[in-house]
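Hey,
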Amino acid sequence: MYYLDYRLSIDKSVFSLAKSIDGRSWEKQDSPVFEGNPASWDKLIETPEIVIIKNEFYLYYIGYPESNFDNGIYESEIGLAKSKNGFLFTAHGSTPVIARGGRKDKDGITSPGITEKDGKYYMIYTGWKNITSLFGFLGQTGATSSDGISWEKENKAIFKEVKESDAEVATEADIVKGTDGKY
């Protein structure tokens, strides 16, 4: 299990790994598996998502250029780190694999969920755009990729939800294949 781990000793958030044989008792690994870059767009990191592509571990994550949340989710983008063994990840390049700035994610991107079907990768993520305005957007959108590195955004809402107020929106979703073969 990969998880966000705040390390008081270094005053930063990192991704860590814990292992379990039975899913109830967990043993934490001492060293972090990945840290953001304090001088880059991913100074603060969160929300690890692991996918295995061609026998390599792909760790997708959210990166923020600031180390605090004074600006909320604004400026968040999706990065990628890779590992051959799953214990130590290295950032793939120095820029996000999915940058904010589209029609549905102008201000920020969070919460990636990825699945594969017939050699194509599908990502669902939360897009943020002018959420305090009448024409803003906060909800699920997505992207597709043939290699897990280069992504093409959908730039549209993935689904329309029923909501009772402006405060009720779907912002944390994942995509999983069910036993019936549907997603």
